[in-house]
Write a structure and sequence with these properties.
With about 230 residues, the chain is of the alpha/beta class. Helices cover about 35% and strands about 20% of the residues. The protein is built from eight helices and nine strands. The chain is elongated, with a radius of gyration of 21 Å. The two termini are about 40 Å apart.
Length: about 230
């Protein structure tokens, strides 16, 4: 899978994705991640990538031309247009379903907003989808892009063993429930014992316990998910 990122701050994307599972996926070739500085496609001596907003207001807006030309250069290099996403606090909510959908695409382009945002003609000209990772505002789209890349990459076949991503929190295949509590050795720690059912070897009983615990955790932490996936 190839993922390109257009950003004003490449190190903010590259650094956290150079280690752990995503870093390993990059080293094996399962993920071809290319991070580009938007200023590469500026034309003035100051490498200007932003300007004041039409209509007034505080802050600066990222200019359309460097981003569009960068995206066009990436598409030309790849031989076809990628699925293009703009990381934006005003975008569609990113979730596990979207992560699965994006993991099936051969090529993604993520564009990181900054300052007061991106000239909306970028979205229009590139047919991009705006995506948000949560109901809060970051200083820029770089960390959001890293989150999306991490979530998508781990779903690419061969990056993680298939059984390791079964019955995960938020997975549609798990009815959207949160994951059940997990335990490992020792069987007792500081007076707290692992539930007996997990030591029983009774796989049917273990599966039933895990399902009950998943419902209980979802009800306690995210009752909205129960209403969404298991309406009355």
């Amino acid at each position: 899978m190839r993922i390109d990122v257009l950003t004003l701050f490449p190190a903010m994307v590259d650094a956290p994705l150079s280690v752990s599972i995503v870093g390993r996926a990059r080293s094996t070739g399962a993920l071809d991640l290319r991070v580009h500085d938007i200023r590469t496609w500026t034309e003035d001596v100051h490498r200007t990538a932003d300007d004041t907003p039409y209509g007034g207001g505080a802050g600066m807006v990222m200019k359309a031309d460097p981003i569009v030309r960068g995206a066009e250069a990436i598409a030309t290099d790849a031989g076809s247009p990628p699925v293009t996403i703009i990381l934006s606090a005003s975008g569609r909510s990113f979730d596990q379903t979207m992560a699965h959908q994006l993991s099936e695409e051969p090529h993604l382009l993520l564009i990181c907003g900054h300052y007061e945002g991106i000239d909306d003609r970028v979205r229009q000209l590139l047919g991009a989808t705006e995506v948000s990772i949560g109901d809060y505002v970051l200083t820029g789209g770089e960390l959001a892009a890293a989150v999306v890349i991490d979530a998508v990459t781990r779903l690419v076949p061969g990056v993680i063993k298939a059984e390791s991503i079964a019955q995960e929190s938020h997975d549609p295949a798990n009815a959207g429930l949160l994951e059940f509590p997990q335990y490992t050795r020792p069987a007792e720690y500081r007076g707290l014992a692992v539930p007996d059912v997990l030591l029983s070897g009774n796989h049917k009983a273990i599966a039933a316990w895990r399902h009950e615990q998943a419902i209980a955790k979802t009800r306690a932490n995210r009752p909205d998910l129960l209403k969404k996936h298991q309406p009355d």
